[in-house]
Amino acid sequence: MLIERTFSTQDVIASDRFDCWREHVLRTYAPAEVHSDHVANFAASQRIVTLGDVQLWTMEHPSMTLSRTEKLIRRSDPELYHLSLPLQGTMRLTGFEHEAAFERHDLVLHDTSRPHLMRAITGHGERAIQGTGLLIPRKLLPLPENAVDRLIMRRLPGREGLGALLAQFLTQVAGDTSSYRPDDGTRLGTVAADLLTALFAHALDADGSLPPETRRHTLVLRIRAFVQHHLHDPHLTPGAVAAAHHISVGYLHRLFQQEDHTLAAWIRCQRLERARRALADPAMRDTPIHAIGSYCGFTHASDFTRAFRTAYGIPPREYRHQAARIVA
Hints:
Oligomer: single chain
Number of helices: 12
Order of helices and strands: EHEEEEHEEEEEEHEHHHHHHHHH
Number of strands: 12
Helix content: 40-55%
Strand order of the largest sheet: 1-3-4-11-6-9-12
């Protein structure tokens, strides 16, 4: 299981809940002014999952406002990008004479180093705000900060393209951390940073203005995101990947010469890792092993079994039995 922390105001008496929430925000995010019309009984909870230097969070709370002023920024600034994915309720952000509204499944970027006012508002028939997102150090993203600044408070759709892939990643990891090992956290943090970088690069359409090395890196990230989205396809070959990105197979191979694995080897590793997680997932315990292999892009069950044994030292069936005993 991944390393995670949980916090709930239900653990204290009703009159103290809002003050405890404000203190929690200060400790886990940054100094901020927090206000709400539900102070008398502020029912809120949060989970924070550690993914190396990246933090994945889920949150549920009543309507509230949160502001970072210049004075509070001077007091303390963790220099984080804050990406939010509202799942229930709406969000309004105000900063630098600009205001934007965001609905469910929009991806929203703001920055702890910039003054801003965030209003989270419940909709008709909704009792609480719900959402998930990332806290990620600015230094982890390979894009120039002045380029990323153009995306602050800009709507990034979470239902299509790279935004949908990132949103799916966030909700899937947050939804079940039990199928991962603690040492998977850093790797998942790298995946989160890569997906976020790919989304930003796509949104900026920055290929013509970024330095050559950054352009190469962002293209590799886009290719990796494309592969993750198509792992189920048995026809996912270097030729298919190159065609989808309008580059030659030769150029594709040159791109991956500077990576740890060739593209074909990386695709195989990702398929096997997806299969390993599926085999360890209690929700998929009744799914036939050959179906999991097919879901991960292996056409023949024997090829899947042989590849899995080579990678992990035991066949898929035995791995599933071991994982089930650990969960039990």
